[in-house]
Structure formats: structure tokens, C-alpha cells
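Here is an idea for our session: we take a single protein and study its fold together. To get us started, please write out a protein record for me. Start from the sequence, derive the C-alpha cells from it, and show both lines together. Go ahead whenever you are ready, and we will take it from there:
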Amino acid sequence: MTAVTDALSGVLLVGGALLSLAASIGLLRFPDVASRIHAATKPQVLGLLLVLAGVALRLSSGTELATLLLVAIFQMATAPVAAHMIGRAAYRADLVRRDLLITDEAVGMGTERPVAERPRSDR
């Protein structure tokens, strides 16, 4: 049973590390703020959760498992809020590529600039 647990733990740890690596590469390579926000939150959070699951398989104490659970809960609670605040700040600082926006739902929230018409090929 421990060989299976060790193998599963190793797979989870490597998978989480690879997702976190992909998130960091995305932060460096993606061209605009919206893409970078996506790279900073989604794969990074899943990578951390996989790493925590891999570590949890190796632990036996209830206190240690509770600590890992708290880390996971706080990460899932704070990452979306941080990404939202970064997105709002980028929008207000006019760092968002408006040519990529199909609809601008933030118009009327302090900035009254219309979105440039984007030609759609599906019409």
C-alpha cells in the first residue's frame, strides 16, 4: 500500500509543479493583462492544490492535514479576488486591449469610453 501511496503522491507533486511552472511561463509570455491574469490564477491554484494533495498523502497527523486544508481554502478564496482587483485596476488605467473586448460590461462604472467595433467573422 505504501508503494501505491508513494507513486500517487509523486505523480501529484510532479503534476502540481508542472502546472505552477506553466503558470509562471504564462506570466512571462502572454501579451496582455487579461491573459496574464488567467495564467496567474487558474493553473497556479490547481498546481498548488495538487502539491498539497501530494503532501497530504504523506502526512499522518490531523493537525498537519488541517493546516494543508486551511492553505487550500485561503488560496482558493484569495486568488480570484486578487485577479479581479488586478483586472479592475488595469481596466481603469486603460491597460486592457479594447479591440479584444466583444462587450464591455464595465462601461458605466466610472469610465465612459465606448468599445471600438470589432469585426466578427461569424455574421
User: Anything to note?
Assistant: The longest helix spans residues 62-92.
